[in-house]
Amino acid sequence: MRVRLHSDKCVGHGRCYVLGPEVYGEDERGHCVPAAVEVPPELADQARAGAQNCPESAIELEED
Known about the structure:
This protein is α+β, with helices and mostly antiparallel strands. It has one domain (2-62): Alpha-Beta Plaits (2-Layer Sandwich), CATH 3.30.70.20. Helices cover 22% and strands 22% of the residues. The protein has two helices and four strands; from the N terminus they run E-H-E-E-H-E. The longest helix has 9 residues, at 44-52. The protein is globular, with a radius of gyration of 10 Å.
């Protein structure tokens, strides 16, 4: 699984890094920063939870 962030859509709600703390982080403004582009299988649920709960749909996941 790969994470693609559309940073122009992110406004910093923080749901992604609250729900997926091992997949997503935050920058100094509270906007999403993916911890890694490639998500290991054991973190796939966190990646999906963060993406599905983004109000702006700023996170796109590409399944393997």
